[in-house]
């Protein structure tokens, strides 16, 4: 490939691996989702009405003026900015972080949302919290040293239950507060997980609910509220992490939609994997 300046640039062939779910999956309250699909027949009627209201020159337009009386199809969608795959903006966690107004999703630097990905396998930790020692052991196993700009993707295996609300949350391994702080200490800005939330496990949350009801100081969703102390991003509801042939050596991309003032932004998360990695698939 040649740039506009005549420089030669070598681009390694890569495979795009889809790591996302549909926007309507795991749309539990309060993050609802509704879609009304307008088919082509109805689209012709709606479009002709619109053109006639605009005083379309040449006379009245009817649905029959479109080829085969079929107009354009579209969907009217109503949903939370936390539907499907999304990145939680700092503003989601609280109004202020590190002494400054928390950024909304349209203010998040895009360079935080792309970088070398590393898949961390915690599928054997369902219903448990992943701590600092767990993170260190897994990084040592896959022979990766975290560096600023890397994006860890927590592989809990919960995504296989994404359409089963009774099992989805219980199936995930949750990240501990200490574990999140350690990742941030390594210069991480974005953490992803193939589960409903980045937070501690379902079992820990149940324990904290009981403690809160007894009057103890046991905050719910504690990882989210770390975001009031330290600026960072969560990416939730990933899927298909098992399709990655290796635990690292790929580029992860998840640019959020530029929703003005949004507490989150929908993303289409993908991994760009060198094609040669699929020649000798590894278990790591």
Question: What topology emerges from the helices and strands here?
Answer:
Blueprint lengths: L13 E5 L14 E6 L1 H14 L20 E6 L6 E3 L1 H4 L2 E2 L2 E2 L12 E8 L7 E2 L1 H10 L9 E5 L9 H7 L2 E2 L1 H9 L4 E4 L8 H12 L8 H5 L6 E4 L13 E4 L10 E3 L3 E5 L10
Parallel strand pairs: 7-9, 8-10, 9-11, 11-12
Antiparallel strand pairs: 1-15, 2-3, 4-12, 4-14, 5-6, 7-13, 13-15
Largest sheet: 9 strands, mixed
Count of the separate structural domains: 2
CATH level 1 class label of the largest domain: Alpha Beta
Could you name the ranges where pLDDT drops below 50 across 5 or more consecutive residues?
none
Give the helix tally.
Answer: 7
CATH topology of the largest domain: Glucose Oxidase, domain 1
Strand order, biggest sheet?
Answer: 1-15-13-7-9-11-12-4-14
What is the C-alpha radius of gyration, as a whole number of Å? Answer: 23 Å
- Anisotropy-based shape: globular
Distance N terminus to C terminus? 33 Å
In total, how many beta strands? 15
Strand content: 15-25%
As a percent range, the share of helical residues equals 10-25%
Mean of all residue-level pLDDT scores: 89
Task: Please outline what is shown here.
The chain has two domains: 14-29 and 81-278, Glucose Oxidase, domain 1 (3-Layer(bba) Sandwich), CATH 3.50.30.50; 33-78, no CATH class. The chain is built from seven helices and 15 strands. It has helices at residues 40-53, 90-93, 132-141, 165-171, 177-185, 202-213, 222-226; strands at residues 14-18, 33-38, 74-79, 86-88, 96-97, 100-101, 114-121, 129-130, 151-155, 174-175, 190-193, 233-236, 250-253, 264-266, 270-274.
